[in-house]
Design brief:
The chain has eleven helices and no strands.
């Protein structure tokens, strides 16, 4: 929740301040066949390794549940990405930008609750809605943000921002619904994840607040999501104001700031 939501909206707050007018509609940022092919390679690698990213801090049977739920959720986001990319685009064809990104949104959407979701159908449904949100973002919201003066070059709002908000919401619901007496949650280490729960032994000694009910814990989780969003936007906006004082590059989306091979121009012409 914190990784995706904070990172995405910090960048969006920053971009709102520092986006130069020349970046909008810049021809050097246009998609191409070669760039799309390379991007799909990245998508495949991310799809393969996202389950291990979500499950890195878990262990034992909980790690197996995290990995399984992540794979199921990303399967759901793949389904919705292909379905709604074709439905929402006027061409009635698949758009590569949607396929490269929205297919991964399930991994974001399920991340907060991957160890708490006890039902594979729920994991698929969470991923499905994550892919739907992401596709809607690329089809409709990215253009609206550009009209508002915000240049989201990689669509972080669509892949990390909105699915991250969904993940935080799902995590809050799971925290509120968790019950130590329910066998479906028997693998969840509530004493580690939610030490302030009133069902946890010694909760008063590990929390500066009174012991919470599951419903209160869910509310605290949701409040953490809102605070993360507000701090990210404010921090990004402030950082943009500071760095705007620094003279930015005059040329955008150019390779002259990098070392390139001697035959670079010929290679670029061929590609």
């Amino acid at each position: 929740m914190m990784v995706h939501t904070f990172g995405a909206y910090f960048g969006i707050g920053f971009a709102r301040v520092i986006s130069p007018k020349a970046s909008f509609g810049n021809p050097h940022q246009a998609q191409g066949y070669v760039s799309d092919a390379f991007s799909m390679i990245g998508t495949l690698f991310l799809w393969m390794f996202w389950p291990s990213f979500n499950g890195a801090l878990a262990d034992g049977a909980v790690q197996e549940r995290v990995i399984t739920n992540t794979v199921l959720a990303m399967t759901g986001s793949c389904m919705s990405a292909f379905i709604f990319s074709r439905m929402l685009r006027g061409t009635r064809k698949f758009e590569m930008e949607d396929i490269q990104n929205a297919t991964l949104a399930g991994g974001v959407a399920v991340g907060t609750a991957a160890d708490m979701i006890p039902n594979p159908g729920i994991a698929i449904l969470v991923g499905f809605f994550g892919g739907l949100l992401s596709t809607i973002g690329y089809v409709y919201i990215s253009g609206a943000l550009e009209k508002a003066g915000l240049h989201d070059t990689c669509g972080v709002n669509n892949l990390h921002g909105m699915p991250g908000l969904l993940a935080g919401t799902i995590g809050s619901i799971c925290a509120a619904a968790i019950s130590t007496g329910d066998e479906r949650f028997s693998m969840v280490s509530t004493d580690v994840m939610f030490p302030a729960l009133n069902s946890t032994a010694g909760c008063e000694s590990v929390s500066f607040l009174p012991c919470r009910s599951p419903g209160q814990q869910g509310g605290v989780q949701f409040l953490a999501l809102i605070l993360s969003l507000l701090w990210a936007l404010a921090g990004g906006f402030l950082t943009g104001l500071i760095l705007k004082k620094v003279d930015p590059p005059k040329k955008l989306f150019q390779d002259e700031y990098f070392e390139t091979p001697e035959d670079y121009d010929e290679m670029a012409r061929i590609l």
